């Protein structure tokens, strides 16, 4: 049972990440005098800056860490409580913080994010990157490292492998191609040369592109000249972990090489060994020549064992639900997230959730799916704030348009990347057709068609196609008459559909 309440707020938001901060901002936009508490475990809050609406659903922004006082100055009726929530008492509508205080709420929004799935706990040589502190910890360890193993195939792994210099990188991916979370094998083939060569190669666009789904066949090794890749910026310990989290940080190892990346495809981790464990292991086959000389060893399902200085676990996040579950009866999704409905409401009364901690369990638009990204954390936080305010004001609220179409703008390997709709033909089975255009080193354009209608696209490079394709996806025009002309580089497609 919780102790005596210090205060009861109309709204309590837990978490100072993008979702929580956006939710707070939205509450104040609709109810300027709202009585709101933001309870956050981190000393800084994350703020969205330089927000730019690129098209109807595609947006671009930076994320900065700021002192919470910035929010308090902006919203005089906001109380920022610097402590982690220790427990939630959903029935009596209150939260208890680590420092022993109890706060009541009328409505609560849980935006506690996620934490990296770690391969193992307690090893100083196995790191997960989540926030500024962990990024700096990695940077420190890397400066003495000669070889690291990166496990994972999502956005963090992609950027990390590209960014790390002065150190051998072994990259273990469970799929047939790199970047499987975001791309297909064709896009991966387009990006792979960026790990070895650096100057974009000039080549004429080819309508039928160099697309291969062949298995990469075990290991691919690339070595780049140290002078070729220059990454701007010096070490900046204060820099925020935003969509460009790696830009402000120098990720350099102890070696002279610029980059040496070996990709181990289609494998997962069997076991992580200390040098002693490896030496005394009964499985003699595990012992590589260098047994005992590395601080940590990793055995993969492809039968190989590598010694290295650091293992980076970049295999996704687990929703941060632990403090909220005991004593309550939240419906949880398969991925461990708090289930939310089309008003961002959990299964517990008056409790909403947004961002990485939640799992969207409404019937989604055929062109939208959840991915744990900044963009969606912002959109969900904003929509949760709108829903809470609307309920408070007894006003109706409609589903935000951003949930009509999945869109994500980011950069990988220095290329602008726009992903739209079912960009990887997710859930379409064989009922789809792909159109591709690729200019090596310059652009990669993939369109996913279903029943002659565009349902998704991957745009890598400065294609300038995002707005037109977004419109074509949203209006579901029958594109059958246009056939392959749709991607003819000699046709100005924007004029075509004007
Ligand atoms: P978070 O940003 O994790 O915020 C959670 C907040 O809750 C924190 O303030 C935390 O302190 C607080 N909290 C947690 N537990 C409690 C508690 N018990 N009590 C009180 N407060 C608590 N996405 C992209 O779109 N593009 C990218 O390029 C990209 N790069 C990434 C790189 C890295 C290294 C990582 C780790 C993630 C990246 N992501 C990227 C994903 C993105 O960071 C997340 O989707 C986004 O931060 C989720 O926002 P959130 O507000 O839900 O959670």
Automatic annotation (TrEMBL):
Residues 415-476 form the NADH-rubredoxin oxidoreductase C-terminal domain. It comes from the Eukaryota. Its cofactor is FAD. Probable FAD-dependent oxidoreductase; involved in the cellular oxidative stress response. Required for normal sarcomere structure and muscle fiber integrity. GO terms for molecular function: oxidoreductase activity. The keyword Flavoprotein applies. Belongs to the class-I pyridine nucleotide-disulfide oxidoreductase family. PYROXD1 subfamily. Residues 10-163, 298-381 form the FAD/NAD(P)-binding domain. This is Pyridine nucleotide-disulfide oxidoreductase domain-containing protein 1. Keywords: FAD, Flavoprotein, Oxidoreductase.
């Amino acid at each position: 049972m919780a102790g005596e309440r210090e205060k009861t707020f109309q709204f309590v938001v837990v978490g100072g990440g993008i979702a929580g901060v956006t939710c707070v901002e939205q509450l104040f936009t609709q109810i300027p005098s709202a009585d709101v508490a933001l309870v956050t475990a981190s000393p800084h809050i994350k703020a969205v800056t330089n927000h730019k609406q690129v098209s109807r659903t595609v947006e671009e922004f930076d994320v900065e860490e700021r002192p919470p006082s910035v929010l308090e100055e902006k919203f005089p009726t906001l109380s920022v409580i610097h402590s982690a929530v220790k427990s939630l008492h959903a029935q009596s509508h209150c939260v208890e913080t680590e420092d022993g205080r109890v706060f009541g709420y009328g409505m609560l929004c849980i935006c506690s994010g996620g934490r990296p799935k770690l391969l193992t706990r307690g090893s100083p040589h196995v790191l997960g990157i989540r926030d500024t502190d962990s990024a700096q910890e990695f940077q420190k360890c890397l400066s003495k490292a000669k070889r690291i193993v990166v496990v994972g195939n999502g956005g963090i792994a992609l950027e990390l492998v590209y960014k790390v210099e002065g150190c051998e990188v072994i990259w273990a991916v469970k799929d047939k191609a790199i970047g499987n979370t975001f791309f297909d094998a064709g896009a991966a083939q387009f990006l792979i040369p960026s790990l070895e060569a650096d100057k974009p190669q000039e080549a004429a666009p080819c309508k039928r592109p160099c697309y291969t789904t062949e298995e990469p066949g075990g290991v691919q090794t690339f070595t780049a000249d140290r002078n070729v890749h220059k990454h701007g910026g010096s070490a900046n310990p204060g820099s925020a972990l935003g969509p460009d989290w790696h830009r402000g940080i120098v990720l350099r190892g102890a070696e002279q090489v610029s980059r040496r990346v070996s990709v181990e495809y289609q494998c997962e981790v069997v076991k992580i060994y200390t040098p002693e464990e490896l030496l005394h292991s009964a499985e003699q086959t595990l012992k590589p020549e260098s047994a005992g000389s590395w601080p940590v060893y990793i055995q993969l399902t492809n039968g190989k064992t590598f010694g290295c200085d650091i293992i980076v676990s970049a295999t996704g996040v687990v929703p941060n639900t632990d403090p909220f579950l005991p004593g309550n009866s939240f419906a949880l999704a398969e991925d461990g997230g708090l289930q939310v409905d089309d008003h961002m409401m959990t299964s517990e009364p008056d409790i909403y959730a947004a961002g990485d901690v939640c799992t969207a369990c409404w019937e989604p638009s055929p062109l939208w799916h959840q991915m744990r990204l900044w963009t969606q954390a912002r959109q969900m936080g904003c929509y949760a704030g709108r829903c809470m305010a609307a309920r408070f004001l007894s006003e109706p609220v409609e589903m935000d348009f951003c949930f009509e179409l999945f869109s994500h703008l980011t950069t990988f390997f220095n290329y602008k990347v726009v992903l739209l709709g079912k960009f990887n033909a997710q859930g379409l089975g064989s009922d789809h057709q792909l159109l591709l255009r690729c200019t090596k080193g310059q652009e990669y354009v993939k369109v996913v068609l279903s029943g002659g209608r565009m349902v998704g696209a991957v745009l890598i490079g400065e294609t300038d196609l995002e707005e037109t394709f977004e419109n074509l996806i949203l209006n579901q025009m029958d594109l059958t008459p246009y056939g392959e002309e749709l991607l003819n580089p000699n046709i100005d497609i924007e004029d075509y559909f004007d």
